[in-house]
Structure formats: C-alpha cells, structure tokens
Design brief:
nucleotide-binding, six-stranded mixed β-sheet, Acyl-coenzyme A oxidase, 23 helices, 673 residues, Butyryl-CoA Dehydrogenase, subunit A, domain 3, binds stearoyl-coenzyme A, Butyryl-CoA Dehydrogenase, subunit A, domain 2, 13 strands, binds flavin-adenine dinucleotide, lipid metabolism
Length: 673
C-alpha cells in the first residue's frame, strides 16, 4: 500500500473510489519507479525510522516559524540525523538519501553543500595528501565547508571572477584577497553562519601571471570558537524568495594567507618555486558544477512529482459546480480543462524521473573515464548535463505553478505545500548555471555537431540523429506509434539545429566575427538546444517503457503517460513541427484527437499514478495532498493554529482601531462628503 500516514479519520469516499477504480496495481508501478520491491521496502523502512523519531516531530507548521527558528530547527534536525545514521550504521547512499528525504522536507539542509559539494570536490580535485588531510575531518564535521564561487559582480562568467590567490614563494602561501566591492563572494549556501571552511574559486596568480580560476581550500572561522578569522569578513545575505532555512552568505577576504597545500592540486599545480603546471583540460575545475547539474534533473522531477500528488489528490476530492441544474457537483478532476492542466504534468514528472536516472548514469560512466585520464567525452557530458538541467528545471518550475493554480484559492495558502515546493525548486533555474546560459552551452555543442555533419564526419551516439534526412515527412498514423513520436522530436531538433547553424554561418559570411554571429543567432540556438533536450527526454521515456519488465496493465498505464508526454509536447510547440510541413493537417488532427483520448485514458488512473510516487503525508506536508483526502479538516486545523489566533482580540485593536472609533464618536463628521 502506498503511504498513508495521517490519523484514524475515514478516507474521503471520492478518493477511495478513485483507488478502487485504477486499472493497474499501484505497488507494481512504485516498484518500477524505485528499482524493485526490495528497494521500496528499504525506502519505507528508512523513512519510517526517520518519521518516528521524536526529534523530527514538529510542534507547529513550518510556515508559522521565523527565519531564525527555521534555520535553527533545520540545523538541529540535520545534525541529529547524521548522528542517528551513524548510530544505526546506515552507510548505503540510497538508504541515506531516503532517510534524509523524510527528515527535512521543508528545510534546505544547512550541511547539504558540505556533503553535496565540499567533500566531493576535495575527493575529485584533491591530491592524495589533501584527501588524507581534509576528507576525514570533513566527514567527522570537524571542518564544515561549502562551495564559494559566485561574486556580487559575476556568477555566470567564471573567467571574470575578481577574487585573487597570489602565490608567495617566500612563505609558501597563497594570499587570497577581495580587491573590489564587486569581488565580494555572494550567494554561496551555508556560508553565512554555518561553515568554517570553503572551496574558494579565485584567479590564480603565480610568477606575476594570471592562470585563471582555480579552487582553494580556505579556512574561514576558528575551528573551536567559530569566530571569523582575522582578515575574513562574512555573514548571511538576508531573506530570499525561498530557501530561507539556508544561510546563503557573503564573504570578503583581506590579504588572507593560506598554505600552498590548500590549492586543490590533482589536475593543476603550483610548485614550490611558483612554476604553474597546467591541467589536461582547463574545464576540469568545473567538474563539481557538472556533477550537481546532472543530479538537479532528478531533484526537479521529485519536486514536480510532489506538486502533482498534491494537486491531483485535491482535484479528486474537490467538488465544484453542478454539472446539470440541481445535480451533484462534479469532482474538478472530471473537467477536461483540469485534466489538460494536470495530466501532462504527471507525465512530465515521470519523464524527468527517467531522464534524471539516464543523465546520472551517463555522468557516472563518463566520470569514470575522466578519472582514468580519458577526457574525450567531457564535451558530451557538459552539453547533456547543462541542457537537461535547464530544460527540466524550467519545465518543473512552470509545472509546479500550474499545479498551484489548479488548486484554486487553497493552492495560494502555504498550507497547500505548493508555494514552498515552488520557491525551493525554482532557483534551480539559476544556480549551477543560469538556464539560458546553460542552453547556450548545449547549443554551442550542437553547432559543432552540425559542422561535423556538413563535413561528413561521424557523430557521437547521443546526437547521431542530427545527420538524419530532413526532407522525410512524418510516419504518424492514427495508432500514434512511439517510434514515430521519437522521430518527430528528432526531426524538429535536427531542423532547428540546422536552421540556427545556418544563421550563424550567414552572419559570419556577411563579415561578422564568430562570437557576434553566435550572439545574433543565440535565441534560435537556444530553441535548438531546447528541442534537443526534449527529444532526449522523449527518447529515454520511450526506451524505458519499451524495455520495462513489468506486468501488462502497469506497462499500459506507463505507455499512455509516455504518449501523453510526447503528444502534449508536440501540441505545445506545434509551430516548430509544422514549419517545414513535417506533419500535414490530417496528422495534426490525429494528434489533437489523440491528446483528448489520452486525457480520458489517464483519468481513471490519475490518483493511482500519483500515489505510485509513494510520498508520505509528512514528506508532502500539505493540507491538500493528504492521502486520506480530508482536506477541509486539515485546512480548518491549520487556520486555527495561526499565531494571530492565539488571542481573540489583538493588542493592535486596542492600539489602532479602538481609538479611531472613539475619535470618530467625538469628532464632528461632515454631514455630506
Ligand atoms: C548541494 C547538494 C547537492 C546534492 C545533490 C542534490 C541535487 C540538487 C539539489 C539542490 C541543492 C541546491 C544547492 C544549490 C547549489 C548551487 C551551487 C552553485 O550555484 S555554484 C556556482 C555555479 N555557477 C555556475 O554554474 C556558473 C556558470 N558558468 C559556467 O559554467 C561557465 O562560465 C560557462 C560554461 C558559462 C563558460 O565558461 P568559460 O570558461 O567562459 O568557457 P567558454 O565559454 O570560453 O567555453 C570554452 C569551452 O569550454 C567548454 N566548457 C565549459 N564548461 C565546461 C565543462 N563544465 N565541462 C566541459 N567543457 C566545458 C565549452 O563548451 C567550450 O567548448 P568549445 O565550444 O570551445 O569546444
Ligand atoms: C538559491 C541559490 C543558491 C546558490 N548557491 C550558490 C553556491 O552555493 N555557491 C555559489 O558559488 N553560487 C551560488 N549561487 C549563485 C548562482 O550560481 C548564480 O546566481 C548563477 O550562476 C547565475 O549567475 P548570475 O547570478 O551572475 O546571473 P547573471 O549571469 O547575472 O544572469 C542575469 C541574466 O543575464 C543573462 N546572461 C548572463 N550571461 C549571459 C550570456 N553569456 N549569454 C546570454 N545571457 C546571459 C542570463 O541569462 C540572465 O537572464 C546560488 C544562487 C541561488 C539563487
């Protein structure tokens, strides 16, 4: 059974009926999503331990907490969790991930960047000596770190960073410095108050020459007193759109000295005499960003999935408007427009989930090659992770907002859980590379591939479709076969890549510099990159369902969703599929009809499809997304717990409203206005 979790109230009859009528067995789909029954059992076991823990039990809804309380609670919980996991001997990465997912659904982990970026960066970019010196103390939380790159003046343009690290051979130290206001580091997570160390990205100077941005291990606070070290000024940057349990920080360094060993020297080095040794590829130091970009695809899929669980369950229990006069009000899930808002998003959540797994596995495979010294696939991995990060975070952000609005007024309350999901995930469009910029990186790669096609060269598998025959028309017939859908997406991406490449070439032929030509074509280049990412997601989804080893009914439900994802993407971007008459009018009619049929096909399975994500009520933390559907009870209880209700009559009444009335009583009001 999918997670229930809330009290002993009876289940709302509408949602109970939905579950009875589903055409497939939810548990089978859950097993498929999480790689088998054993993993599902383990996931629930881990999450149960976490949820039973008294330290995890909240005394009041998070929304009623101040920022300081949020930060403190989050820190307390996360440090407790680490200790618990140690005590319980939980070491498996999956176990830890699921345990963590259940412990802090609403807080941004104050040691997240320590474990997610600081330690992995040392492990990947440090020498054996550095790993020995720093990794164990970091794992034991003797040093706590983060990744400090962005400055007030520069986030995107890493080569433009102004913080300097100048080697002094006399003392065998680097002098790290913030030379200008715009060089102030700004935004890094957990920098303000939590960490005592960081990976600092700074321009390396040695023997009077700038060698570009490099990574340094920089102490920031005294390891005992936690006071900021002399020469270090840092703090929190204040409240943000979301992410408020996180002390994103600022940092200024005033000619602060760190030992030579603190430069991460696995790939590039500064020798004792100041000689600089170049890495095999200067972009190796961007590796930590690539790693996180690859994992963001999975993270945004989970956020969108949670928003879908909430909005679909709510739509099943919410009744609004008599369909015929005097008759019962319909479940809003029965309105086709509501289905059209939500079902493609459910399909998208599944699509991103599978794409996230595929990107992650590409990342792991190519990383192994990079570790072994083979850097050939670095550009492929960069183009894939940058583009998919942008494509999926844009899609998820927009989708979560649709989920919120599909819940009407109640979606606007923080009680729905939806605003929090949105504000937590929408910065993924910005951090780890602003999305348009990331799309342009992917486009740059596609442009190079298009040039290879022009020269008759062979392309890597991931982009081999770019050499397809663009004069071919669509094979789409009324059965809307999966293979034809994939071909359609590949055709669109190849055509847009060719078109954008042609624009760049035209500008160059007209005398523009290549960089200017690229900028003049950049909007069209991002269309190509978006289309490329879209075809990747469709292809992964199609391959996943085609190869899925599951029972027929589950496979049928998943195939319906897969078609819905692909057909909906065509309908939403119809112009791009029609411009060269790839589809004819009849085929567009077929697809339009198919879209409506698919909505009806998904309808009986909708609740089961979101239940299959298996999110516990405590993880969703939503009055609208409760498994038992008792949303009005939850909203009423939530309202009652508002701190404004602690007193019936507030002091402010006595201070402001009452005197006004008394004043009015004594003043002579004008007889007419
Ligand atoms: C934290 C917990 C984690 C747990 C996991 C859970 C999942 C997520 C959960 C969310 C947690 C939230 C934490 C938030 C963390 C945020 C941290 C940050 O934002 S940190 C701050 C993040 N900040 C950013 O992301 C900044 C974004 N900016 C950049 O990355 C770069 O400035 C740039 C790529 C835009 C340009 O770089 P530039 O040096 O000017 O390069 P050029 O343009 O001159 O191109 C030269 C050539 O290099 C090529 N190439 C480039 N990169 C790579 C690569 N990686 N590889 C290979 N190649 C690469 C490029 O294609 C080109 O090739 P070609 O055409 O010549 O053949
Ligand atoms: C919640 C959050 C957490 C963060 N955590 C960290 C962290 O832990 N560590 C860290 O170092 N940083 C962190 N950051 C900073 C983040 O990585 C940067 O904000 C991000 O890389 C974008 O850079 P920017 O702010 O300079 O945007 P800008 O580059 O100023 O972007 C502004 C606009 O300019 C456009 N633009 C910029 N350059 C180009 C170009 N070349 N071509 C076309 N358009 C362009 C962009 O598309 C965008 O529309 C975090 C940010 C947030 C919001």
């Amino acid at each position: 059974m999918a997670s229930a979790g809330t009290g002993k109230m009876t289940v709302n009859p509408d949602i109970a009926k939905e579950r009875r009528n589903a055409g497939f067995h939810v548990e089978n789909l859950t097993n498929f999503i999480y790689h088998g029954p054993e993993r599902v059992r383990r996931r629930r076991y881990m999450q149960n331990i976490a949820l039973q823990d008294p330290v995890m039990k909240d005394s009041k809804p998070w929304a009623f907490r101040t920022r300081e309380e949020e930060y403190e609670l989050s820190l307390r919980k996360q440090l407790h969790v680490l200790q618990r996991q140690k005590d319980l001997g939980i070491t498996d990465e999956f176990d830890k991930f699921y345990y963590n997912e259940a412990t802090a659904p609403n807080e941004n982990n104050p040691v997240g960047l320590h474990f997610g970026m600081f330690i992995p960066t040392i492990e990947k970019h440090g020498t054996e000596e550095q790993k020995k010196k720093f990794v164990q103390p970091a794992k034991d939380l003797k040093i706590i770190g983060t990744y400090v790159q962005t400055e007030l003046g520069h986030g995107t343009f890493i080569r433009g960073l102004e913080t300097t690290a100048t080697f002094d051979p006399k003392t065998q130290e680097f002098i790290v410095d913030t030379p200008t206001l715009s060089a102030t580091k700004y935004w890094p997570g957990n920098l303000g108050k939590t960490v005592n160390y960081c990976i600092l990205m700074a321009q390396l100077y040695s023997q009077g020459k700038c060698q570009g941005p490099h990574m340094f291990l920089c102490p920031l606070r005294d390891l005992t007193t936690h006071q900021s070290l002399p020469g270090v000024e840092l703090g929190d940057i204040g409240p943000k759109f979301g992410f408020n349990a996180n002390d994103n920080g600022y940092l200024r360094l005033n000619n602060f000295r760190i030992p030579r060993i603190n430069m991460l020297m696995r790939y590039s080095k500064v020798l004792e005499d100041g000689t600089y040794v170049k890495p095999a590829n200067s972009k190796l130091s961007y590796g930590s960003m690539v790693m996180i970009r690859a994992s963001i695809v999975g993270a945004v899929s989970r956020a969108l999935a949670q928003a879908c669980v909430i909005s679909v369950r709510y739509s099943a229990v919410r009744r609004q408007t008599e369909v015929s006069p005097g008759g019962p009000e319909a479940q809003i899930l029965d309105y086709q427009t509501q289905q059209y808002k939500l079902f493609p998003l459910v399909a998208t959540a599944y699509a991103y989930h599978f794409a996230g797994q595929a990107v992650q596995s590409n990342f792991l495979n190519i990383s192994k090659e990079i570790e072994a010294g083979n850097l050939q696939q670095m550009p492929v991995l960069h183009a894939l992770s940058a583009g998919l990060k942008a494509f999926s975070s844009w899609g998820a952000s927009a989708g979560i907002e649709v989920c919120r609005m599909s819940c009407g007024g109640h979606g606007y309350s923080l009680a729905s859980g939806l605003p929090k999901i949105y504000t937590n995930i929408t910065p993924a469009c910005t951090y780890e590379g602003e999305n348009s910029v990331m799309m342009l990186q992917t486009a740059r790669y596609l442009f190079e591939c298009a040039m290879m096609v022009q020269k008759g060269q062979r392309l890597p598998d991931l982009v081999s479709y770019l050499s397809m025959d663009l004069s071919a028309k669509s094979c789409m017939t009324s059965d809307v076969a999966l293979g034809c859908l994939v071909k359609a997406y590949q055709h669109r991406a190849a055509r847009l890549t060719n078109a954008a490449t042609a624009v760049v070439q035209r500008h160059i032929n007209e005398g523009q510099k290549p960089t200017d030509a690229f900028n003049m074509a950049s909007t069209q280049l991002t269309w190509a990159a978006r289309a490329h990412c879209h075809q990747y997601v469709v292809k992964v989804f199609v391959t996943t369902v085609t190869e899925a080893n599951i029972d027929d009914r589950t496979k049928a439900a998943l195939t319906t969703l897969c078609k819905m994802y692909a057909v909906n993407g065509i309908m939403e971007n119809l112009g791009e599929f029609l411009q060269d008459q790839f589809f004819n009018t009849d085929q567009v009619d077929i697809l339009t009809r198919k879209m409506m049929t698919l909505l009806a096909d998904v309808r009986p399975d909708a609740v089961a499809l979101v239940d299959a994500f298996d999110y516990h009520d405590k993880v969703l933390d939503s009055c609208l997304g409760r498994y038992d559907g008792n949303v009005y009870y939850a909203l009423y209880e939530y309202a009652k717990s508002s701190p404004l209700n602690e007193k019936d009559v507030l002091d402010s009444f006595h201070k402001y409203i009452k005197p006004l009335r008394e004043g009015q009583a004594t003043s002579s009001l004008p007889s007419r206005l």
